[in-house]
Model the fold of this input.
Amino acid sequence: MSDYQTSLPGKPRLTRRDFMRIAAMAGTGAVYAATARPARAESIRRPHLPGPNSDYVVPTMCEMCVWRCGVRAKVRDGRIYKLEGNPDHLHSQGNLCARGQSGFMMTYDPDRLPFPLKRVGERGSGRFVRISWEQALDEIAERMLAIKEQYGPEAMIFSSTHNLSQPLFENLLNAYGSPNYGTQRSLCFNAMVSAHLTTFGIEEPERKYEGIKYIILTGRNLMEAISTNETKALMQAIMDGAHVVYLDPRYTKTASKASEWLPIRPGTDLAFHLALLNVIVNEGLYNADFVSQHTVGFEELEETIQPYTPEWAASITEIPADTIRRIARDFSAAKPESFAHPGWRTSNFRNSFHTERAITILNALMGVCHQPGVCRLAAPEPDVGLGAPPQPPYPRVRAPRLDGVPWKYPVVPLKLGVFQELRDNILTGEPYQAHGWFISRQNPAMSIPERQKTVEAFNRLDLIVVIDIFVNDTGWYADYILPEATYLERYDPLHVAGNRVFIRQPVIEPLGEAKSALWIYKQLGERLGLGEYFQYEDEEDYIRQQLEPLGVDLETIRQVGYIEVERPDLEPSYVWNTPSGKVELASETLRNAGFPAVPVWEEPPAPPPGQFYLLTGKVGQHTQFATQNNLYLHEVYPKNRLWIHPDAAAERGISNGDEVIVRSEVGEVRIEVWVTEGIRPDCVYMAPGFGHISKGLTTAYGEGASSSDLHLTHTDPISGGQALTETFVTVEPAPRESVIPAPEVSHG
Done:
């Protein structure tokens, strides 16, 4: 077997002419010959797929992000040539975003991983050899069993991102017996979810925009978000006359559509919302009936927020007191057709949990929690009756978790975890040493702050296994990389949206030797002696077992892409899953854990003179760290640039398009600047997901810079959320002779 190593002696560039030529060939099948390295799988053709000369449409679901829009995939001569939004799906409603429309380029990417790989060089050298699936699974199982025997099941870490096959991944984790489950959620929405759990006993309310009159958005850049149907609803609400107040230090696309843009000082959203509460409570603008009947802790809240006047907040937020007072009154006057959006990626500051609590309380005081068409906080949606393969109970877990939940973070739900703490405790060896890391559809080398520490953690481990469609940045350091089929080539478990059950199904046969997650987890589980947790013959049998209680066969749902199910209309419920059974304005859960029962002001750190807050946030053309190698998306957004205000740029002799060196306490990057008035003078911004270090990503490698090379690790002690914006940086012109390639990372 020969080495499989990607090298870039002279990195090829896709010109516009090349791009248009490839795009033009998509309908003819020439793309495969011109760009696709993997060979077609030599498996028996799935009987439901037409022959190679057919022209057909397959309904399925997108996976270019976690939102799972409905897709109609058009196929000609055995090749996908277009993806369209499915009008029958609640999320897509007949539309697809730029990411969704580009999805088939992930399938036909020339960098697709065509077969299993095994590392033969030093970790991080990129030296792998091709091996068979049988050898890969046998060796991985043997090494995982050896770790379990010598160190206990807790010595293996399992990490995955949010996806439809996650229940099977969790089967593998729980059946193996490890407590160590790493998700990306502490880098995203821990604060938002934890705040809702402690206030209402639910993770997140369902928002309705029809008839809405007043919305407060705190950093929620919905116009570039992944929740496309909510974006569409917001756009319609704005066209219908809704007043939108948008708080963000940066002039985003959402800011451009808002009625008011308030460029608030970073970290002071909490002060703004505490002042809103002060006005609403002291002027009696809340829903007194709802508060008296369905909440607890109002008196404690009233006493706590007295110092937080609009004048106090104005000096902190840099928003005039009159503006704060006006917004509080107008917001209240619009109730119940008003709500404060809780946001999504709320991993900004260590005080972000208190900010989220203040937002949940603001909505509770308005009494909008159960208003039809505004914000529903009813019980969890009823089970539609899907079946599942039988399995025994999981073995009892005795070891504490490496990420500190709950022994260090008592309020953080187990399924959220604290990802950055897990990485740090690999390095400290506390409370015990980890020895293996099994990673599916995740890229810790790009996502966790302080990338150098993440790579150092990799070097402390005996085994790293990565499942992905590419040799991603984490895969570059792995011992084994297993090729997963793309979402257009595989089945996943069924998905419920509204009163419909949708299927993700193969549109074409898998390329190369790629396999579905359902197949991989079953095969590995059986080799680990855990076969009773994977009692299905294959992917189709798994879905048939899901459909069996509904009396629907697989062929029926494949043809249309979904089935209708009967679901009872839920009436608003005034019982919440909290210790008191009511909305807890003052939370006993927090009090018992030693935290303030009501939101209180916590002063956030500020950058020293001459430094900036480092802001990050989504763009509409990419999904986190996963799509920068997509040729279509690379054409429209090839690299990130550093936003900087004209005054700050002028002080440093920086012009638009210049390259600069950005430094934090933990690293530095070289990046091109965009000089714009659309950002506060004390802030800079860069889109995440760029600066890839895997040479297996020939399009994305070395393009732009990675925020993970700059971010420091700061963790909110209540929600476990990473405080990304508590990283401060300097910016200076890059010397012409200075060369900083895609950040050099030690390979150990």
